[in-house]
Each structure stands twice: as structure tokens, then as C-alpha cells.
Specification:
The complex is a heterodimer of chains A (197) and B (401). Chain A has 197 residues and is α+β, with helices and mostly antiparallel strands. Helices cover 42% and strands 18% of the residues of chain A. Chain B is of the alpha/beta class and 401 residues long. Classes of the chains: A alpha+beta (197), B alpha/beta (401).
């Protein structure tokens, strides 16, 4: 009897402690989880903020392609949905570029090329990550490689004022060159001297 | 920077348009009445002690001589356009033959092994052939040909053999072999641009590179290294590293162009654009130093950023010389190839960034253009490219002996 009496408070105490512990654990983790969710939602807020506060639904962008007439880049205007962030606008512009000309301009890109992702750093460099086809499905000569590289760099820089330089990545990584010519190991400045007047 | 680049580009264009366009195109057959192209063939034979330069042409040409110190200039007055071809060159007393085209004239400059010399012309008509025997001046006892200084490392380099090669360099300055690196573009699995008929850029660049090596070794006191002399993969970094390891004086990369446009055609020569003159490199500008010092500082693999920027600065200090070499090569190509002149351009070519010496990249013609693809595959065209680059090199060396 006495044994039972002694045992019972101990068991109860242990049980109570266990319950408190479990509750604490649950509260702790659910609290942390809640914070995490808030973190995920937050960045898209400031990132997606459009400069004038009210997001316009479309914007007109300039794309660069080659022409049959000369070896310069030629501009083509296109109406696209406005993105919620600079990165999104870059991705849209490059995506449109890869679709090719809607007129009779010539695309310097291998047709299978896709944009994988775009991100920006604080110094105004846009990193545009392409699928492997960009480097592997073309036998680039110097002219075609320059056209492909600067069609991207100029298109991104001309449409997004905050972008000063463009770094081209392939499958998420740095690559020496696309096909043995233009140095991609560092960000490139736009070259408007390659654009037809 | 962008503005600077544009200005430089415009400057190059203006310079070219001043220098070049007055020149009639030296296409084969600019004369409608003759079905055959007018060709001026230059050959040099070693006669043991003296040399004979022969200039022959399909049409007779009025000529005149001008004797200078260590050189003889032969001028042909003619309104016709010619393609100049060098047939054979066994130097001996003649160090080099350069040529330039003026308004209605072609001037050949024959550089000789000694400052004073004598010459004896003889002429043969139909076909027109002007032979000039050149030898040491009679008063002057033939100097023993100074053996080239043996200080050049005899390692794996292919030294130009001293004996049949050119004579001593002018003046008493100690002879130091210049070192040139020829870089045939692409190679191995990296084919470069492809032609419609299956020609590959890597094969054409190699063929031209080997021909260029042969001409240079035969005619100039140069050590010549190739970044590849067969079909193999060589990384771009290793190409410039090879130049730096051998303390190269010049780096010439040979390419054939490719464009998505079939119509793109012509020849162009590139040197490095200064993309690196960006804030980040300016921040590190204090690291700038003389390029001579650079080689000592950068050893092993230069993968980190500071080293990369130093490489850029190394090339930056050679930009002027690179541009002059590019100009010289471009005019050489214009004169000898009959291709369209696309001019001298600047671009951030990876292979040029690392070389700590004047460096250029020659886009000989477009492999993506069916007509030029055929040309690029012929021995004659490849010979002409090699010849043009060689003659341009001789011109360039007058600026930087």
C-alpha cells in the first residue's frame, strides 16, 4: 500500500514533466515553423515591389537579334507581362530573346537553349543561368559567339537600368567560354557599338 | 569605359578608313580584260654570300630603285592591282622582303644583312622578270656571320637554325631570339565553327598555323612555339600559359570565323578589349606593376581573382602594341587574300586575356560562308594567310625591332 502511495506521486510528477516537455517542444517547433513561413513570404514582398508602387501589367522591351543585312545586332520591340521583380523581368526578357524574332531577324542561339534561373547581386550584376544547350548545341565561330553573348548582355542591360553587368552561367556554373572565344569568367558590360544605328 | 571602348573602336575604324580604302581591292582579276589574275611573285635565293631577289609578273612593269642604309626599295609604277605572292625564300644576305601598296605603285623593301651593300639588277621581258643580285659592298670584306648568341635556351624550343637563316641583326646589340607563339584555334573535341561542306575550324587553323611556323622559322631569327601542332584539346588558359612560360614576345591566335548568317564574309583581326577596366579592377589598380615583373609574381595556376586581374593588366600594358600588330596583320590580309576587309576589332577573347605580351587573334575568313569555306580548305589560300601574317610581322618588327 505504502509502496503504491509512494510510487503514484512519482509517476504523476514524471507524467506531468513529460507533458510539459512535449508541449514546450511542440510550441517551440511550431513557433519556429511559423517564423520560417514568414521569412519565405517576406522577400517576395520587397523583391516584387515595382518602382512606382502600382504594378503595370505589361511593359515594352527591346530584344537584340542579328539581321541578314549585316553583322550587327538589331533591336526588336515586344510587349511582355511586367514581372514583380527585376530578376523576373530579366528572366522574361531573356526568355523572349530565346524564342527568336517575331519578324525576320536571325537568332544567334541554339534553338533548345532555356533560361534556368536569374539572380542579381547588390552591385548591379545580373547572373543569367542557361541550360547546357547554349554552349553545347552550337559550333560557335567568333562572330556567332559574340552575337549570342552580346544579344543577351545588351538585352538585359538595355531593359533594366539597375543592371550594369551580366554574367552568363551554364547549368548553374561558371564556364570559360561558350565555344572558345568570349571570356565568360567575369561579368560583361553591354556593347552598344555592336548594335545597328 | 564603354565610351573609351567605343572611341577606341571608332578610332580604329577611322584609322583604317584613312589607310585602307584608297587601296584598290587586290582581288584576283580586277582587270576585266585579262582572265588571269595579275600576280606579282617574289622569290629570294641564297647564292652563298649574296642573294638574288626575283620579282616576276605577267605584265611588264616600269620600275625604279632607291638605295637606303641596309635596305633597297624597288618601286613599280602601275595603275593595276596585283596579288603579291612569295614563292620561295632562302634568306642568306636578304633578311626580309616587305612590300606596301600606294596610289598607283607597289614598293618592295628588301632588308639586308649589312648596312652597306651592292646590287645588280637584270631584266627579262615576256614574262617580265626583274632579278636583283644583292651582296656585301665590295669595299667591305664580307663580315663573318656572327653566330647567334647561344644564350637562347635549347630546351624543347624549335630554334631557327643559325646557318641558312638570316644574317646578324643590325647594329652591335646582342642577339636575342624573339619568341613567338602561334595558337591554332580550337582542337580535339572542340571543333570550333563548322562549314556547310563539313570543314572544321580546328583543322584549318592547324594547317595555317603549321604553314606560318614554317615560313617564320625559315626567314626570321625567331623561336617559334605552337600551342598545339596536332589535333588535340588545349585549354585556353594553357595556351596563354605556354606563351608566358616561354617568355613570348608575340602571341598570334589563328581562327576561322562562323556566323548564323550565311552571307557573313571577310577577314578581321582582334585584340583584347578592356572589359576589365571596371570598378573591381580599379579598386585593385594599385597592384598594377610592370609586366616584366609579372611573370615572376604569378606562378602556378592563377585561379584567384587578383591573379586574373593581374593577367588583364598584363595584357593591358601591351594594348598599343597589340593594336599595331593587329593593324599590320589586317592590312596584310587585305592585300593578299582578296577577302572583304572587316577591319580591326576589339573583344574580350579569353585566349588573349592571359598572354603577357602583344597578342592578337586573326579571323581569316568565314567557314560558315560556303564560298569562303571552299577557299579556306585550299592550300593556296592557307599559304596566303600564312604569308600575309608573316609579311605583317616583318612590318610590325620595323616598329619594334
Amino acid at each position: 500500500m505504502t509502496k503504491k502511495r509512494k510510487k503514484n506521486p512519482k509517476v504523476l510528477l514524471l507524467a506531468a514533466l513529460a507533458v510539459i516537455f512535449v508541449v514546450l517542444v511542440v510550441v517551440y517547433f511550431s513557433g519556429g515553423g511559423g517564423e520560417k513561413i514568414r521569412h519565405e513570404t517576406e522577400p517576395s514582398g520587397p523583391g516584387g515591389l515595382s518602382a512606382d508602387g502600382e504594378a503595370p501589367t505589361t511593359r515594352t522591351i527591346t530584344l537584340f537579334f542579328l539581321s541578314e543585312d549585316d553583322d550587327l545586332l538589331h533591336a526588336e520591340k515586344r510587349e511582355v507581362p511586367a514581372g514583380r521583380s527585376v530578376a523576373e523581368d530579366v528572366e522574361t526578357a531573356v526568355g523572349e530573346l530565346l524564342k527568336g524574332s517575331s519578324g525576320d531577324l536571325v537568332s544567334p542561339f541554339p534553338p533548345e537553349t532555356k533560361v534556368r534561373q536569374v539572380f542579381l547581386d547588390e552591385d548591379g550584376t545580373a547572373f543569367v543561368d542557361f541550360s547546357r544547350e547554349f554552349a553545347e548545341n552550337a559550333a560557335f565561330g567568333a562572330s556567332s559567339e559574340m552575337a549570342a553573348v552580346y544579344a543577351v548582355v545588351n538585352t538585359v542591360a538595355v531593359n533594366l537600368k539597375s543592371v550594369k553587368r551580366v554574367s552568363i552561367l551554364i547549368e548553374g556554373g561558371e564556364r570559360e567560354t561558350l565555344g572558345g572565344h568570349i571570356d565568360l569568367s567575369r561579368p560583361l558590360l553591354p556593347q552598344y557599338s555592336l548594335v545597328a544605328k | 569605359m564603354k565610351r573609351q571602348g567605343t572611341t577606341a573602336f571608332l578610332g580604329a575604324v577611322i584609322l583604317l578608313s584613312v589607310v585602307v580604302p584608297s587601296r584598290p581591292r587586290t582581288l584576283p582579276g580586277p582587270e576585266p580584260q585579262s582572265s588571269q589574275p595579275s600576280v606579282l611573285v617574289v622569290s629570294v635565293r641564297d647564292l652563298g654570300g649574296s642573294s638574288r631577289v626575283t620579282l616576276s609578273s605577267t605584265v611588264p612593269l616600269p620600275y625604279s630603285f632607291e638605295k637606303r642604309t641596309g635596305a633597297l626599295q624597288v618601286t613599280f609604277e602601275t595603275p593595276l592591282a596585283f596579288r603579291v605572292r612569295q614563292a620561295a625564300f632562302a634568306g642568306g644576305f636578304v633578311r626580309s622582303v616587305g612590300w606596301s601598296q600606294g596610289r598607283g605603285s607597289y614598293a618592295f623593301t628588301i632588308e639586308l644583312a649589312s648596312e652597306s651593300f651592292s646590287f645588280k639588277p637584270s631584266i627579262r621581258e615576256d614574262p617580265f622578270e626583274l632579278s636583283i643580285d644583292l651582296g656585301p659592298a665590295p669595299a667591305e670584306a664580307p663580315k663573318p656571320v656572327a653566330a647567334p648568341a647561344p644564350d637562347a635556351p635549347a630546351a624543347s624550343g624549335r630554334e631557327t637554325p643559325a646557318a641558312p637563316g638570316p644574317g646578324p641583326l643590325p647594329g652591335d646589340q646582342p642577339t636575342r631570339f624573339k619568341t613567338i607563339v602561334i595558337d591554332p584555334g580550337h582542337g580535339g573535341i572542340e571543333t570550333g565553327a563548322k562549314g556547310k561542306f563539313g570543314a572544321l575550324e580546328k583543322d584549318i587553323t592547324l594547317a595555317i598555323g603549321l604553314k606560318l611556323r614554317a615560313i617564320i622559322e625559315k626567314n626570321l631569327a625567331f623561336r617559334v612555339f605552337m600551342t598545339r601542332d596536332k589535333d588535340m584539346d588545349v585549354s585556353l588558359e594553357n595556351r596563354s600559359a605556354l606563351a608566358n612560360n616561354h617568355k613570348a614576345d608575340l602571341f598570334i591566335s589563328i581562327h576561322a570565323n562562323g556566323s548564323p548568317r550565311k552571307n557573313s564574309h571577310g577577314s578581321e583581326t582582334y585584340f583584347l578589349s578592356q572589359n576589365a577596366t571596371d570598378e573591381e579592377s580599379r579598386r585593385l589598380a594599385y597592384l598594377e606593376n610592370s609586366s616584366g615583373d609579372l611573370e615572376g609574381r604569378i606562378e602556378g595556376d592563377g585561379r584567384d581573382d587578383i591573379k586574373l586581374i593581374l593577367w588583364d593588366l598584363a595584357q593591358a600594358s601591351y594594348l598599343k602594341q597589340s593594336s599595331q600588330l593587329a593593324e599590320s596583320i589586317q592590312s596584310g590580309l587585305n592585300a593578299l587574300l582578296g577577302t572583304a576587309n572587316r577591319g580591326v576589332k576589339q573583344a574580350p577573347f579569353k585566349v588573349l586575356t592571359g598572354a603577357a605580351c602583344p597578342a592578337v587573334l586573326v579571323e581569316t575568313a568565314f567557314i560558315s560562308n560556303p564560298e569562303e569555306e571552299k577557299e579556306l580548305g585550299t592550300e593556296a589560300f592557307q599559304d596566303s594567310v600564312a604569308q600575309a601574317v608573316y609579311l605583317s610581322l616583318v612590318e610590325y618588327l620595323k616598329l619594334y625591332p
